[in-house]
Design a protein that fits this description.
alpha+beta; ten-stranded antiparallel β-sheet; two-stranded antiparallel ribbon; 261 residues; elongated; 14 strands
Length: 261
């Protein structure tokens, strides 16, 4: 009888041990499965984040590509002063896009003027003024004087050279300059310039002109002309003294294309 009880007890203990072992194995298996699931979720989330970042980057590049559209200068103008007057004077060239048209062409014995215009009335004007000696351009207001800041806006293709036997390379490197009116003086009543947030224009000028010009009394065509065996100016202006973003790109491209023979 005692032996039977002992055997029964041992049997029960064995059964309990087996059950506990199975329970532990099942628990470990469940933990392993949970860890695998969590790891998989992390991997999927990482892949989604990477894909989202890639999509954002691609969209950003597409947007920048759309915004930065190159200006197509499909037309070229050649100045005619020397040809019309049968004299030796260099031709000048500049390029312009299809949405700009030649508005004015004038050539006489001493001067030449060519004006490009867009639909809004923004202009790019080339002017040659001859028949005067260097420093003797004259004219200008006896009442109002402007102060204009001159800064480089972009590069210029113009390289000064010879006009007949006169070497103008001393003018140095050229630029497309931004002209900003910052002061105005009434010469009859004011003792100093009044600060103003004035008009903006652009011009082809020697880089040595960078700085401030505080004696502007003529139209920009005269005060921002350089001596090239005659006075040359190449200036962009607008009806309201301001340029839209697209207009600014276009006038910088047109002015930047100005060049000699």
């Amino acid at each position: 009888m005692k032996v039977s009880k002992i055997v029964l007890v041992l049997l029960i203990c064995s059964i309990l041990a087996v059950c506990m072992a199975c329970s532990n194995n099942h628990s470990v298996s469940e933990n392993d499965d949970k860890e695998k699931i969590v790891k998989k979720q992390v991997e999927i989330e990482g892949q989604l984040e990477t894909k989202e970042e890639t999509n954002k980057s691609e969209k950003s590049v597409e947007k920048e590509t759309e915004e930065v559209k190159p200006i197509k200068l499909t037309n070229t103008y050649v100045t005619k002063f020397g040809e019309v007057n049968a004299v030796t004077y260099p031709q000048f060239y500049f390029d312009y896009p299809d949405n700009w048209k030649i508005f004015t062409e004038e050539v006489n014995a001493t001067n030449e003027k060519v004006v490009l215009s867009n639909d809004r009335g923004t202009t790019v004007a080339f002017s040659y003024i001859g028949g005067v000696a260097e420093g003797q351009l004259g004219g200008g207001s006896a009442v109002t004087m402007l102060r204009v800041d001159i800064s480089k806006a972009s590069d210029s293709q113009f390289v000064p050279g010879y006009v007949q036997a006169t070497d103008h390379s001393g003018l140095g490197k050229f630029m497309v300059a931004k002209l900003k009116v910052t002061g105005q003086l009434d010469m009859q009543t004011d003792s100093d310039f009044k600060e103003v947030d004035g008009k903006v224009a652009y011009a082809v000028l020697p880089e040595s002109w960078t700085g401030t010009k505080d004696d502007v009394r003529r139209a920009f065509e005269g005060d921002f002309a350089f001596w090239y065996s005659g006075y040359i100016s190449m200036i962009a202006d607008s009806p309201d003294g301001q340029f839209s973003s697209e207009e600014e790109k276009e006038v910088l491209a047109i002015l930047g294309s100005f060049r000699g023979e």
